[in-house]
Amino acid sequence: MAKWISRMLGSAVLPEKQADNHQINEIDLSRLPQHVAIIMDGNGRWAQKRGLPRSVGHRAGVESLRTAVKVCTNIGIKYLTVYAFSTENWKRPKEEVDTLMNLLVEYLEKEVAELNQQGVQIRAYGDLAGLPLAAQQALTRSINLTAKNNKLVLGLCLNYGGRAEIVQAVNQIAAEVKAGKIDPGSIDEEVIEKFLYTRDIPDPDLLIRPAGELRISNYLLWQLAYTEFWLTDVLWPDFREEHFLQAIVDYQKRERRFGGLL
Ligand code: FPP
């Protein structure tokens, strides 16, 4: 079994750092997190440390995203959701916002055929109407092309904020109540979940936050209620397969009680 996993993972390994067999042997494939969420943080610091423009850090961050997708498809994680652009990121200089939007379009245009072949279904969560037209069009094309795939659901959080997501859900529910379609007395967690961007996917089991920050940054506020957090000082562009596997190994050592007792 271990050899088989090792062979499978071989294709995702980046040359400079290989996941060692010891780490791979430790993973129980029958108890993988079904859904992993990632805050891709530290691109700017990675670039600054090298005296490079922040845009180079973001580009390097796309490489780490590629690696994360490969790890998921290789070992069988079903949902990967990444924070690519928050509702607050518009406050950054226009040049950086443009870089991020261009990178998104470039990523989708360059990779969608391969992602499609790998069985990846692309989705986007957030206020997509607020994105530049080119980004909206690239997303629509990628989402439509990959809609039937079921190996991995790759969720891109774009113009996304956890609070904004809850506000839009409340507004939609209020409109349904007004139209007589929802009885206000029937509103429970299940009803609210139906109006979230993530309505038909399970909550994340594991949240990975690189770059040493200890905050949630308005990410998946509803969905992270019982998610296990895995934090590391490694900056996102340095995040490799070995880090992802370590997060899974550590996750499998946790006792998840969901507020109850074991
Ligand atoms: C946070 O790092 C990262 C972002 C705001 C953007 C993340 C985007 C990418 C990894 C690439 C584009 C995404 C796709 C889907 C192609 P930061 O810049 O805030 O880092 P810092 O805290 O070190 O400044």
Write a compact overview of the structure shown:
With 262 residues, this protein is α/β, with parallel strands linked by helices. It contains nine helices and six strands, in the order ααβααβαβαβααββα. It is globular.
- CATH topology of the largest domain, what is it called? Undecaprenyl pyrophosphate synthetase
Question: Sheet bearing the most strands, described?
Answer: 6 strands, parallel
Kindly report how far apart the N and C termini lie: 30 Å
Strand content: 5-15%
In total, the number of domains comes to 2
Set down the secondary structure blueprint.
Blueprint: H1 2-10, H2 21-26, E1 35-39, H3 43-49, H4 54-75, E2 79-86, H5 94-117, E3 120-125, H6 133-146, E4 152-160, H7 162-178, H8 189-193, E5 206-209, E6 228-231, H9 241-253
Parallel strand pairs: 1-2, 1-5, 2-4, 3-4, 5-6
Helix pairs in contact: 3-4, 4-5, 5-6
This protein binds farnesyl diphosphate.
Task: Give a verbal description of the structure.
- Belongs to the UPP synthase family.
- One of its GO terms (biological process) is polyprenol biosynthetic process.
- Mg(2+) binds at residues 41, 228.
- Substrate binds at residues 42-46, 54, 58, 86-88, 90, 92, 209, 215-217.
- The protein is α/β, with parallel strands linked by helices.
- It has two domains: 31-160 and 202-252, Undecaprenyl pyrophosphate synthetase (3-Layer(aba) Sandwich), CATH 3.40.1180; 162-196, no CATH class.
- Helix content is 45%, strand content 14%.
- It has nine helices and six strands; from the N terminus they run ααβααβαβαβααββα.
- The chain has helices spanning 2-10, 21-26, 43-49, 54-75, 94-117, 133-146, 162-178, 189-193, 241-253, and strands at residues 35-39, 79-86, 120-125, 152-160, 206-209, 228-231.
- Strands 3-4-2-1-5-6 form a six-stranded parallel sheet, with helices on both faces.
- Strand 3 (120-125), helix 6 and strand 4 (152-160) form a beta-alpha-beta unit.
- The longest helix is centred in the middle third of the chain and has 24 residues, at 94-117.
- It binds farnesyl diphosphate.
- The site of farnesyl diphosphate has 18 residues, from helix 3, helix 4 and helix 5.
- Residues 40-45, 58, 61-62, 65, 84, 89, 100, 103-104, 107, 156, 211 line the site of farnesyl diphosphate.
